[in-house]
Amino acid sequence: MRYVIVSVVKGKAGNFNNNLRKEVFKKFNTRSSKLPAHFTIKAPFERDDVNDIERVLEKFSKTHHSTEYQIKGYDHFKDRVIFMKVLMSNEGKAIHDELIDRLNKIEFLEFSKTDGKDKVFHITITSKKIRDVFNQLWDYVSSIPCDFDCHFDNICIYKWTNNTWVLHKQYLLG
Predict the structure, then answer these.
(1) Please, what is the end-to-end C-alpha distance for the chain in angstroms?
(2) How confident is the model over 43-102, as pLDDT tens digits?
(3) The domain that contains 92 carries what CATH number?
(4) Distance between CA 41 and CA 109 in Å, rounded?
(5) Domain span including residue 134
(6) What is this structure's pTM?
(7) Quick check: 41 and 13 in contact, CB under 8 A?
């Protein structure tokens, strides 16, 4: 089975991202993830069962609390990905990094530069088939105001099932 670990962006910011992704798809025929608005904690990986991860996340969620972060404006990774910029609070970054340390103790999980402690926190708008329309897409997206206060208050495991991501389990931070 294929799994991914994310923190879902809820409320106004999550709705904004989900709607903007649909709008961009209609206007430019570019796609994004099939996940709801989120920032990635662990990129997709293959595993038959995730019991070890579930135990770590259950314990972690009971001993850590929600923290704030902001989303301000946009950025991009070259001409491949356009995203909403996450400005993670120091407290949120510390909790995230502690979570990565705990997950990293699970033998089969390996973190890379793009999903480990030093990742660029971001919420993707579009990442598929954008090179040919990047400049028009960037001009369009960057003209839309984007400024939200958010909470890092959940950790979710999604499972790839029937060609889409389905919520496997959600853990709420106290």
Answers:
(1) 29
(2) 999 999 999 999 999 999 999 999 999 999 999 999 999 999 999 999 999 999 999 999
(3) 3.90.1140.10
(4) 12
(5) 2-172
(6) 0.95
(7) no
